[in-house]
Specification:
Blueprint lengths: L4 H4 L7 E3 L2 E3 L5 E6 L4 E7 L3 H17 L7 H16 L2 H12 L8 H21 L3 E3 L15 E9 L2 E5 L5 H14 L3 E5 L6 H12 L7 E3 L6 H8 L5 E5 L2 H11 L5 E5 L4 E5 L10 H6 L10 E7 L3 H11 L21 H16 L3 E4 L14 E4 L6 H4 L6 E7 L2 H9 L3 E2 L2 E4 L3 H8 L8 E2 L14 E2 L2 E2 L4 H6 L2 E9 L1
Parallel strand pairs: 7-8, 7-10, 8-9, 10-11, 12-13, 12-18, 13-16, 15-16, 18-19
Antiparallel strand pairs: 1-2, 3-4, 5-6, 6-22, 11-21, 14-15, 17-20
């Protein structure tokens, strides 16, 4: 078995990036835990509230001076590409950091998303940005292009930077989420303050040294980490901040909205999900692999994972038996071992959350088909779990659990499946599986969610956006929409 990286690596990132300098934190220490052992492997000094305000002041002064926004798009993109290249050269270090902080297995199918896909996708997004017009003509009819005096008038719209953007990321795919936020915001001319999850601060701090190597101007990118939420509150309320981009739970997203409201900040929120997978009758055999796919996706710690599985009622018993069989020989263990298929959850609180929802599922008429309890070993491990629940009202089918727990629900017909899929306050993603692609597409268009994947998993592309409906968030990340959300429109009306 591979040697534990937390024991072999002696130096971990521990410096904040403030006003163009790497500095030690002056605030409360952050104890970083290895989820695979439950042990603290390093402690860093967090940012003080004074340092948070220093970062805000630096970003605001830089934005107001126009030193970054005033560069041409090509020059900004060139600088951002230098940052990506510097990070690409640090892949081995970033891998160590991500595995140690998150417990995501290096041999899992989703690990490439943590680092490689992130760096590749943002390159595509930079190409997309350079293809977009910065100024566009309003398509007015000819008779509206002359004013009352007969003068020819012009009306243009400019896409301009917002100014200062706060980026607050989650713990499950920390490096990827950090990159998805800071790269498009920087390219479009904004100054960015990155505040990572206190559970995974190192994935953000590793970016600081690369930013200096890329020679980003001082004040353009700041990176501050803290163990609590005092700094985050400042970063979502200070009038000097123009926009907040947040990835995390819906409950915290609502708090961010409330904090940003008095100063009318722009928002981009990617929040919780309880994605449905509908297996049509002609593709029901494929449902037997749905539990394995969901639970092996970073132990179910993903907002877009399909954790509600809908199958024909007549096939439900066979599907449940097949799911249980698919999980019998899952390799659960050290995330540094390439043979490991499923790693730990992030902390003890997530183990308790999984236990609570399994208990609630049973109390409301469900039963445990496979798994259902923590693994007897050091670290925060929970068994891959399949729940047979009687209906979509079951708590395990309604709430985001964020662990390796899926609910299987029978449907009478496809109308019933659609009704249950849409019976949720969340709407981030969804999946339709069908042998008749035309029928599957028709079904997908009835699902009220930000993304629907038809006979496929999620598409990772810098050209394709992601975002939620209803309580799953506001705005989009990646793609055209993920660029324009960091820009304001200014209209210019003029005549000779």
């Amino acid at each position: 078995m591979a040697t534990k990286l937390a024991e072999s690596r002696s130096v971990w990132p521990d410096r904040l990036l403030i006003d163009g300098r790497l500095v030690a934190g002056e605030g409360t220490p952050i104890a970083v835990e290895d989820p695979s052992t439950g042990q603290i492997f390093t402690t860093i000094a967090g940012a003080s509230i004074g340092q948070i305000h220093q970062a805000i002041a630096s970003a605001r002064a830089t934005a107001d001076a126009g030193r970054w926004a005033g560069l041409s798009p090509a020059d900004r993109v060139a600088a951002v590409r230098r940052l990506i290249a510097a990070l690409d050269a640090r892949r081995a270090e970033i891998t160590d950091v991500v595995v140690a902080e998150t417990g995501c297995p290096v041999g899992s199918a989703v690990f490439p998303i943590q680092i490689g896909s992130a760096l590749d996708n943002v390159q595509d997004q930079l190409d997309l940005y350079l293809s977009l017009p910065g100024i566009e003509d309003h398509p007015r009819p000819l008779d509206q292009r002359f004013n009352f005096a007969g003068q020819l008038t012009h009306s243009l719209r400019r896409h301009v930077p917002l100014g200062v953007v706060t980026a607050i990321s989650a713990y499950n795919f920390p490096f990827m989420l950090n990159i998805w936020k800071i790269i498009p915001a920087l390219a479009t001319g904004n100054c960015v303050i990155l505040r990572p999850s206190p559970l995974t601060p190192l994935s953000a701090l590793v970016i600081g040294d690369a930013a200096l190597e890329a020679e980003l101007p001082a004040g353009v990118l700041q990176i501050v980490a803290e163990p609590g939420a005092e700094g985050a509150l400042a970063l979502t309320t200070d009038p000097a901040i123009d926009m907040v981009g947040f990835t995390g739970s819906t409950d915290v997203g609502r708090k961010v909205m409330a904090q940003a409201a008095p100063t009318m900040k722009r928002l981009q929120l990617e929040l919780g999900g309880k994605s449905a997978q509908i297996f049509m009758p002609d593709r029901v055999q494929a449902a037997m692999g749905a539990a394995f796919g969901a639970c092996m996706s970073h132990a179910g710690q993903g907002c877009s994972i399909g954790t509600r599985v809908f199958v024909p009622e007549a096939s439900k018993a066979d599907v449940l038996a097949g799911m249980a069989q698919s999980l019998e020989h899952v390799v659960i263990g050290d995330p540094r071992d390439p043979a490991t298929q499923m790693g730990p959850l992030i902390n003890a609180a997530q183990i308790e959350r999984c236990e609570r929802y399994v208990r609630l599922a049973v109390e409301h008429g469900g039963r445990v088909v496979a798994g259902g309890k923590r693994v007897d070993r050091p670290g925060h491990y929970f068994e891959p779990t399949v729940l047979d629940v009687p209906d979509n009202a079951n708590p395990a089918a309604q709430d985001e659990i964020f662990g390796p727990v899926i609910s299987v629900i029978g449907y009478r017909d496809l109308d019933h499946a659609v009704d249950m899929a849409n019976d949720s306050t969340l709407g981030l993603s969804g999946y339709i599986h069908g042998g008749d692609t035309r029928a599957a597409v028709d079904l997908a268009m009835r699902i009220r969610t930000g993304t629907v994947n038809i006979n496929a998993g999620g598409l990772m592309s810098g050209h394709v956006s992601m975002g939620g409906h209803r309580s799953s968030g506001l705005g989009r990340e990646r793609g055209l929409e993920g660029l324009r959300c960091y820009q304001e429109i200014q209209v210019l009306n003029f005549s000779n």
